[in-house]
């Protein structure tokens, strides 16, 4: 069960570029007794899928989706596959799995998977995104970041990063990569795999993927927290946030610049509320706000952590300030020029 008592089935999204070791890690994790109650969906790119053969030897029944990329044409098939798994679970045709692992193709941007879960009311009722895990190949990451933008998007979207093939990398490569990953996604946990072996807890949703821990780590802009057009920054406010003004601002921000918002996480002090509200978005996908029972510390400032691509942090700050200063819906509409 996800943290906070949510009874929905947690979805673990395992992403990472081609050849970064996702299937090896999945095969290792599925041997662990804690994952005996897992269902697995595997998506592959190409006419002939091989990953399901490699994983299938573990006495599990992965479902191989039609060949294609989850980030574009496969979205409809993903919905049907998730619904079918749940229906078969309810009819007793398959074991009552308590978690769902989706291994994406190496070419996938994770955002459309999150969009599928958020947009489909049936799926959203039964499933919730638990944790996004991305594998990063230490040997090829440096060159890959320059050639393949989706690698950077996978890193930015992740709650946890697993560095693979460190034993094969040239001396000095892995420490340099770890520093770069920390700059790209400061809130992500970073671990290293040893020949595909990891702590299975890395694929378990827990409090490390909630605002309680990562919001405490947020800081004001760090000049090193950038990679070309991608950078991270934190927006903070000492004043309580009017919910209606914030909702309009955030919706407009996502509408105008969703493709550049690689990851947004926030903890808000909402005016009139005694407890914090957590927000979470990936690109154009805004997850339902989560009301937390209490604050993680005595510091009750609102903080929103952004990982963006080719988006000026000052524009985000100026637009936020403009909306928070306006108290009526009519004046908030006039503030749309701040974008």
TrEMBL record:
Pfam families reported for this sequence: cobW, CobW_C
One GO molecular-function entry: nucleotide binding
Keyword Nucleotide-binding on entry: yes
The UniProt record lists the keyword Nucleotide-binding: yes
Reactions mediated catalytically: GTP + H2O = GDP + phosphate + H(+)
InterPro entries in the record: CobW-likC_sf, CobW-like_C, CobW/HypB/UreG_nucleotide-bd, P-loop_NTPase, Zinc-reg_GTPase_activator
CDD domains: CobW-like
UniProt keyword terms in alphabetical order: Chaperone, Hydrolase, Nucleotide-binding
GO cellular component: cytoplasm
Stretches of the chain forming a coiled coil according to its record: none
Domain CobW C-terminal: 230-324
Entry function: Zinc chaperone that directly transfers zinc cofactor to target proteins, thereby activating them. Zinc is transferred from the CXCC motif in the GTPase domain to the zinc binding site in target proteins in a process requiring GTP hydrolysis.
Annotated family: Belongs to the SIMIBI class G3E GTPase family. ZNG1 subfamily.
Protein name in the entry: GTP-binding protein
Organism name: Lichenicoccus roseus
Taxonomic path: Bacteria, Pseudomonadati, Pseudomonadota, Alphaproteobacteria, Acetobacterales
């Amino acid at each position: 069960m996800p943290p906070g008592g949510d009874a929905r089935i947690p979805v673990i999204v395992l992403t990472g570029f081609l050849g970064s070791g996702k299937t090896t890690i999945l095969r290792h994790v599925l041997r662990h007794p804690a994952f005996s109650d897992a269902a697995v969906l595997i998506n592959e790119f190409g006419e002939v899928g091989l990953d399901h053969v490699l994983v299938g030897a573990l006495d599990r029944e992965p479902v191989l989706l039609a060949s294609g990329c989850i980030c574009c044409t496969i979205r409809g098939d993903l919905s049907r596959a998730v619904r079918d798994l749940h229906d078969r679970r309810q009819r007793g045709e398959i074991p009552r799995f308590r978690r769902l692992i989706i291994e994406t193709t190496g070419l996938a941007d994770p955002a459309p998977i999150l969009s599928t879960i958020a947009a489909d009311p049936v799926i959203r009722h039964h499933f919730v995104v638990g944790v996004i895990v991305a594998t990063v190949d230490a040997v090829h990451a440096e060159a890959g970041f320059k050639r393949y933008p989706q690698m950077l998007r996978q890193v930015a979207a992740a709650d946890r990063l697993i560095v693979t093939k460190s034993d094969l990398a040239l001396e000095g490569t892995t420490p340099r990569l770890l520093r770069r990953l920390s700059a790209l996604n400061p809130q992500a946990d970073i671990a290293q795999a040893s020949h595909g072996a990891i702590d299975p807890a890395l694929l378990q949703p827990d409090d490390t993927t909630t605002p309680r821990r990562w919001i405490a780590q947020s800081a004001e802009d760090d000049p090193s927290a950038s990679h070309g057009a991608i950078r991270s920054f934190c927006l903070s406010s000492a004043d309580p946030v009017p919910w209606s003004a914030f909702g309009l601002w955030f919706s407009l921000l996502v509408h105008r610049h969703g493709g550049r918002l690689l990851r947004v996480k926030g903890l808000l002090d909402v005016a009139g509320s005694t407890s914090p509200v957590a927000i979470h978005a990936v690109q154009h996908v805004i997850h339902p706000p989560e009301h937390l029972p209490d604050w993680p510390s005595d510091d009750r400032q609102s903080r929103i952590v952004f990982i963006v691509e080719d988006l000026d942090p000052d524009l985000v700050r100026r637009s936020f300030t403009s909306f928070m200063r306006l108290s009526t819906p009519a004046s908030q509409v006039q503030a749309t020029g701040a974008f």
